[in-house]
Amino acid sequence: GTAPVDLIQATNLIPPDPTLREQSLHIWRIQDRIYRGAVTTIGGARVLVAIAIDFHMAYLAHLRQLLAWGTLIVCLVSVLAAWLAVKWGHAPLRRISNTVGGITSEQLHVRLVPSEVPVELQHLVASFNLMIDRLQQSFERLSHFSVDIAHELRTPVTNLTTQTQVALSRERPAESYREVLYGSLEELERLGKMIGDMLFLAKADHPLARLDVADVDLAHEVRALFDYFEAWADERHVKLCLTGSAPCVPGNRLMLQRALSNLISNGLRYVPEGQSLTVRLVNERGTTKISIENPGATIGSEHLPKLFDRFYRVDPARQRKGEGAGLGLAIVKSIVQAHGGAVDAQSENGMTIFTMALPTARLP
User: Which among 18-32, 38-52, 119-133, 204-218 has the top mean pLDDT?
Assistant: First the structure.
């Protein structure tokens, strides 16, 4: 067809290219139309070859617009999908967080249900439940300990108050006042021992406590304690025996001495007259075991796991006058655990055995 005059005029300044290469193509905008073509020569004549591309350009513009809107929509959908995925994916964490945030000292019975969370979080939930178990046990022990302390301290304080009130109720001879003072002194000594034991337990339970470690000859310490308790044993016609041998163990000598002393004195308290208390040393597989064996009344199996609890007594109704404060075995347990060992008790057929197991390797 014939090219518009305006197009011919627009191409007059373009030199013709007889080869019609890609570089020869040009785009012209004439009024509202767009043309694409080239200027060449045929038989010496100048020839303009062009085609209107309005439709193509409009199509490309429309396509670019659609792509822009499509990209925007896809981005919005992706953001929404990501937000929903994160929201749904973190829903178990939010439930766990809400449950944990609502736990107080009065709600330590609350536990998370592992089956209600994804597999990836079940180990976390199990670990959290174990932590809550330990916290609940600690709170219960602390609560019981507070009650026991109040009960144990009330008895000597009540005795002191009663004795003082009776002494002051009327005029008495000097000998009577002297007896009251002796009785008060006994109660004060009991209070002092109880307070000292509680302070010792507090220090032994402190996680930052550091032991002054040295090699301790347990056989030597047991023989020294036998000499100390000899008078008491002779008075009750009880024989003290040491059997076995073991190498020195790393530990704090004074603390281990106190643990052995508590176990031996506890055994002497319940050995029938004319019987023997035996301390047995055994070394096996890097562990030294010290067993204190004494005949006597069999302790029920329901009591054995609680013997090392503070203030625990097999018979809470019995009179406590002349006895300890109920902290001796608890002190033994704290000392042994501080040395990386373990302690347990067995009682059957009229024989009770307390065993301390201590590592023979040095503490880290």
Answer: 119-133
Query: Mean pLDDT throughout 44-67?
Result: 86
C-alpha to C-alpha distance for 224 and 246, rounded to whole angstroms = 16
Residue 144: the pLDDT is 67
First to last CA, the chain: 101
Average pLDDT, the chain: 82
Q: Is the pTM of this model over 0.70?
A: no
> What is the rounded CA–CA span in Å between residue 65 and residue 345?
85
Tell me the average pLDDT across 2-28. 78
CA distances from 54 to 31, 331, 350 (A): 12, 98, 112
Q: Please enumerate in sequence order all residues whose Cβ is within 8 A of that of 190, keeping only pairs 6 or more positions apart, or say none.
A: 156, 325
Average pLDDT on 156-176 reads 84
What are 226's two structure tokens?
């036998």
